């Protein structure tokens, strides 16, 4: 689960950095999108690879939950969490909600099957897909933006515990640096949240149009 978690976290960072090119203007973002499109079959290899990694991560998470339950077949008579956070206690729930959001995201921007804002179908003057206009128009639709911000809240809550947990799994968390390592996840999650939410908020406010 740690290995797949690292790979998925790296994808989240790369995906955010690519999308942040929306602030550089239509030409830059559309060029980035066209570069990805020109990968051809390789793009599908990457997509299938990500899907396999995601499925393995879900499988590993399910196995960990089963192992945890098997280790304590009789529940506590009185439950009081002293050394855990809300994000840690809800990792399974946030993970399942993330899967739902990922499906929505793919059906929205990638496939175009869900188009609440009428944001798909834009083309540039040379006949290529106008991703910039799709993003701006899509995020100018308040319900769509609300869905994405909620999705980012769930993602970052998951990352907040997941990244810190990775540090412990990799043996980087020691008694001497425990407090610092425990802050890595929340800080990383906050950076991802600000970066991803900045785009819909910029569209709503008219900063990008």
What's the gist of this structure?
By secondary structure, the protein is mainly α. Helices cover about 70% and strands about 0% of the residues.
Distance between the termini: 40 Å
Q: Biggest sheet, in brief?
A: none
Helix vs. strand class: mainly alpha
Number of domains: 1
Could you characterize what this model shows?
- With 209 residues, the chain is an all-alpha fold.
- The protein has one domain.
- It is 72% helix and 0% strand.
- The protein contains 8 helices and no strands.
- It has helices spanning 2-19, 26-37, 41-71, 86-89, 91-110, 131-139, 142-169, 178-205.
- Helix 1 crosses helix 3, helix 5 packs across helix 7 and helix 7 packs antiparallel against helix 8 (178-205).
- It is elongated, with a radius of gyration of 19 Å.
- The N and C termini lie far apart (40 Å).
- The mean pLDDT is 87.
């Amino acid at each position: 689960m740690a290995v797949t978690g690292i790979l998925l976290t790296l994808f989240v960072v790369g995906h955010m950095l690519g999308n942040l090119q929306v602030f550089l203007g239509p030409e830059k973002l559309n060029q980035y999108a066209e570069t990805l499109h020109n990968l051809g079959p390789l793009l599908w290899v990457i997509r299938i690879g990500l899907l396999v990694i995601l499925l393995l991560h879900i499988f590993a998470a399910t196995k960990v939950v089963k192992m945890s339950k098997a280790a304590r077949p009789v529940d506590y008579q009185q439950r009081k969490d002293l050394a855990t956070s809300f994000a840690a206690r809800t990792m399974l729930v946030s993970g399942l909600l993330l899967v739902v959001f990922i499906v929505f995201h793919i059906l929205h921007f990638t496939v175009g099957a869900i188009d609440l804002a009428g944001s798909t179908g834009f083309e540039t003057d040379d006949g290529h897909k106008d991703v910039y206009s799709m993003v701006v128009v899509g995020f100018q639709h308040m319900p769509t933006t609300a869905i994405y911000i909620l999705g980012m809240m769930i993602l970052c809550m998951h990352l907040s515990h997941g990244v810190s947990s990775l540090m412990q799994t990799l043996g980087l968390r020691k008694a001497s640096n425990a407090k610092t390592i425990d802050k890595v996840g929340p800080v990383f999650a906050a950076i991802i949240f600000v970066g991803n939410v900045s785009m819909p908020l910029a569209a709503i406010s008219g900063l990008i149009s």
